């Protein structure tokens, strides 16, 4: 079969259509011999190759052949069965990736939001077990500051696009960030207002309770679950909101080359998850 031809496989009753070149990507594999007609156990019948194996697991194998990366859904647990299928098709590179099961399994991610409301100001501190999540969240949160006379603020408490200046967030460590919002009247007649915007929402909010609501809504949309709320300090009334989510495993991928079987090892790439 030419590598430009379309190959149709019936794997355990599930139909798969792909290019022959995809199945020939690892020349020493059983799939390559199957397509080339060099494996006598498999025959081309009515334009299809029937394989008496698990069709559901074969979908992950075909995805690996197409992308040279292994990406599994969060709730996947059949690592040993998938490795057995990789051994059957003699895909040693895939079997090696599956042996790194500890890197493929989803992990519990914990995030905590602490909120303190003092008069007209709201103070936030966000802790996260995953530094990448905090980094992404910091890139979505912007604090703007605006100075005006108290009289002008009473007449127009909404930010002017021309006068609002962005401020950098405080990052005490890779695992937390600090910011605040609200108004400060401590400078006499000069009032300092801090607004917070959280992408993709374009609003600039100055009220601490409103910012807290937007932050919680953002985290829930990102897949976090609110698991508990408590008061950390009764005197200062610091509210603590705890979130959890299962962090999707990163995709394990092979270095691209003309001969994938000659690849010396695997490397971590940016996560890509098509299945949810």
TrEMBL record:
GO terms for biological process: protein homooligomerization. Residues 255-267 have a biased composition (Polar residues). Pfam families: BTB_2 (PF02214). It comes from the Eukaryota. GO terms for cellular component: endoplasmic reticulum. Residues 252-276 are annotated as: Disordered. Signal peptide: none annotated. This is Potassium channel regulator. It comes from Pelusios castaneus.
